[in-house]
Give the backbone structure.
Amino acid sequence: MNYPNGVKKQQKQNINYKNRGMCLEDDLNETNLYYRQQDIAYIYKKPTPIQITKVDYPSREKAIIKEAYFKEPSTTDYNGLYKGYYIDFEAKETKIKTAFPLSNIHPHQIEHIRNGIRHGGICFLIVRFTFQNETYLLWGEDFINFLDQTKRKSIPYTYFKEKAIEIPFMYQPRLPYLTIIDKRIGGHYENEKNGG
C-alpha cells in the first residue's frame, strides 16, 4: 500500500508450505512410476472394474461412456511385486485431526488384507492425515489386530504415532515407502514397531 509522504507499509504474508504435496493418490502414482522407471518395483494402481451399459458413438475416436456401473467391489488400491515379494496396500486420506475413520475401508477390503497376509503377502495401509500433513505406513497385521481387539469406529491418530511408520515427503521418489519395506524384509522393524 502507498501512504502519504511516500511511506510504504508492507503487509506480512503468511505463506503456508504445509500442503506442498498433491493428493495422496497422485503422490503414490508418481512414486510408483519412479520405481517402475528405475526398475526397482512394479506396483500399480488397480482399476475399478466397471460394466459399460451405454455408449454414445459420435465417431469411433470420440466414443463417450454415458452409463456404467461397478461390476464388483474392488479390493485394495495398489498391488505388485518388489524383490520377489507380493505387495498389496490401501491408500486413504483423512481430514480428521484425531483419528482415521474405519468407514473409509470396506469389509471386503479388510477381508482381502487378511487373505493377503495369510498367504504371505506384504499388506499395509498408507494413511495421510491432511491436517498434520503426515503420511504413515501401518502394517496389515497391526491394522487387523486393532480391528480384532476393539469395537471402535476409528483408529486414533495416537495409534499411528505408536505403531505406524511415518513416510517422509521427498522429491524422488515422493513417498519412499519401499525403504520401509526393505527394513521389514531385513527385520529391522520387528521389535520396534511390531511389524512382522
